[in-house]
Amino acid sequence: MEIMTDRRFRKTIKYVRAFLIISLIGIAFMVVLITGILGYAKILGAPPLAVPQSTLYYTDDGTVLGESNSGQKRYWVPLENISPSLIEATVSIEDKSFHEHHGFDYKRIAGAALADLKALSKVQGASTITQQYARNLFLAHEKTWKRKILEAFYTIRLEINYSKKDILEGYLNTIYYGNGAYGVEAASQFYFGKSAGELSVGEAALLAGIPKGPGVYSPFASMEKATERQKVILNSMVEDGYLKKQAAEQAAAAPLTLTGQHLHLQTETAAYFQDSVRNALKTELKLDDRTIALGGLKVYTTLNLKQQEIAEKTVKNLISKDSEIQLGLVAMNPGNGHVKAMVGGRDYRQSSFNRAVQAIRQPGSTIKPLLYYQALDEGFTPSSTMRSEKTTFQFEEGMADYTPHNYNNLYAEDDITMAQALAVSDNVFAVKTHLLMGEKSLVETIKDFGISTKMSDVPSLALGTSGVRVIDMANAYSLLANGGKKVAPVFIERVENHRGEVIYEYKNSKETILRPDLAFVMTHMMTGVFDRKLNGYTTVTGDTIIKDMTRLYAGKSGSTDTDSWMIGFAPQLVTAVWTGYDKGKPIELTAEKSYAKNVWVHFMEQALENEPIKAFKPPKGVVGVYVNPVNGKLATEDCPIKRLTYFAAGTEPVDYCTEHIEDGNNRSTEPKHPKAKAPWYKKIFEWIP
């Protein structure tokens, strides 16, 4: 008997020893396995937390202009900008032990397994916030063992590489709240019309209950079920010490005001401008299409919403609905190149082709200020004279003769000044000037003004026969308006990623391209387009819109058979307008020939309505004198018309006009100086009739 007992004891010891050995091996294996998993997770590093988010476009005052999304509204906000009540409500109902566990709540897992076993079905979840976040970030919501294993692995990676704050912030910004709203900011805006940081306790509790089943607990699906779950969450917050019972009862009883409208609805405002911004993100910042569309970027643009609305309204009101003519408009701040308004066509829905930046059209006489700036640089002055008459230019053998024509075939049949030639747009004077300086030199000057389209070095280039873009012409005139400083069209001031980090910021160039004195002289010459003192054999080209002007502008119109232009500026704003047909059909109707000028002046007047009236301030190195605008000589008291004209110092005329000196016994034959006048800046409106 004792022998049998001894054998049984030794056999038991053997089994115990085997069990212990196997257990130790199993424990060692588990330690190695867990260590390996943790090590591998650490080696892989932090998994990316990026999720598709809406990219927002802002105007220059911070107003949201537009949004890129694929039906999903997503806006990332830092944890500190989320209502503490919403954070507490979410943790309380979703994962009470979030701040204590390391990704897995084992007690909750065991409890859920027991509940499922008793019910013989899946009745209780045990996923932590970290697990849910891992699932939202990296996995499909399929119920397979592979997905569960990967979810556990990603959960480990998140916990190892990120803080609890990062995980909670990411979870709240990615969880689905129904109705296309992903994340707390989109949900807060949709349900309550306010940011996530402004939610009341009651609103926060209601919102925290939706992710469990957006189709069930959304107040728009069932207000009854939504408020029932709200009360469950408020009671849970009381149990967890986040709220006093009385505060929870008050929150449950507080009325709820629902909006049911997303913050940023798709807008058609500045559709052409928004296209240009996206193109700049791609070509200048080298961002790919997915990042632009779903990267959660905040793109701060240069657009002035008020001026954009004025531009769109002006085009709509002034161009007949029955006309098929198209339009391109660009308004820029000449000081920094910021594009403030853009219209690329009559209707973006019918045609997304942006005529303001894509179309290449002949600029006509709007090229002349660039030609005459070059002439000033080569020794011409506003008082330089040449004869205006029908002229045929003959060239070397092999080149055809060229006969430019003035509008309506009108000519002075006499000498005229360069200032008057510009004001009345005399084509013969322009071609003579161009040929005197050499045809290739204008090509280089046009490049200096930032125009990159191909130019032909032919006599007709002086009349704008080589194509340009509207935006390039607005930029070229900006160089004159700002005193010769280099600018380029700017659409984007700053770009932030989804975390608010600045990834791009525009820096303005300080380079000077033109001579400031000559830029001002040219600008002042361009005010003559609106000054009837420069009327001659024909009226100044801006005559028809002078009545609509309340401030001083410099500008130039231009036309070809198929194109009509008006470009001009005040010190604060440059605007270029082109009108014409897409297929190059001739503009024949009188009304259609006036669209460019009328759109330009009405836009400028309204856009600057609340801006101070500013004069063009002369820089050092210029001299202003009164001249007879007919011959460009210094005016005397006897001259019937005198016009203040600016010259680069040392180039001003020295001869007095003698054409109007009256004969008589009591009159001197010596020319008399004009009487002292008020300073030029008090006479800036002399040009107004």
Account of the 3D structure:
The protein is α+β, with helices and mostly antiparallel strands and 689 residues long. Among the domains are: 1-44; 76-253, Orthogonal Bundle (Penicillin binding protein transpeptidase fold), CATH 1.10.3810.10. 38% of the residues lie in helices and 12% in strands. It has helices at residues 2-44, 84-94, 106-119, 129-138, 145-161, 164-174, 184-192, 201-208, 214-217, 223-239, 245-253, 271-283, 289-294, 305-318, 368-377, 418-424, 427-437, 439-448, 470-481, 516-527, 590-593, 595-607, and strands spanning 55-58, 64-68, 73-74, 181-182, 298-301, 326-332, 339-343, 385-388, 414-417, 492-496, 502-505, 554-559, 563-570, 573-580, 622-627, 643-648. The strands form 5 sheets. It has a 5-stranded mixed sheet. A 5-stranded antiparallel sheet has the order 7-6-14-13-12, sandwiched between helices. Helix 14 (305-318) packs antiparallel against helix 22 and helix 15 (368-377) crosses helix 20. It is elongated and about 150 Å long. The termini are far apart. 44% of the residues are buried. Residues 329-579 form the Penicillin-binding protein transpeptidase domain. This is Monofunctional biosynthetic peptidoglycan transglycosylase. Residues 62-237 form the Glycosyl transferase family domain.
